[in-house]
Amino acid sequence: MAIEHTPSRNEDEYFARVDADLRKEMREKADAERAAQVAADRNKCPRDGTPLVPRESHHVIVDTCATCEGIWLDKGELEILEKAQAEHSGFVTNLLNIFK
Description:
By secondary structure, the protein is an alpha+beta fold. It is about 50% helix and about 10% strand. It has helices at about 10-40, 75-85, 90-100, and strands spanning about 55, 60-65, 70. It has a three-stranded antiparallel beta sheet with strand order 1-2-3. Strand 1 (about 55) and strand 2 form a beta hairpin. It is rod-shaped.
């Protein structure tokens, strides 16, 4: 005589929880991979795709390209350099005159 097994409510809850945890781990892994890809793409020269070299200038990280010698600023960095212009002259002044 065969005994038919029907899952209990506890079994259903357990496997539902295991599935939810698995989906959560997969989502976190996918999000981490996506963030790493975005970071890798973001740190490349928009002109030629060469990895950018970060350099500090007046407490601002300026990204420079070794190939095309381009200078790339992130949002808000130009304003910080403009404030530094009042305190310093030379490179910052010349750089800001390009944008005027």
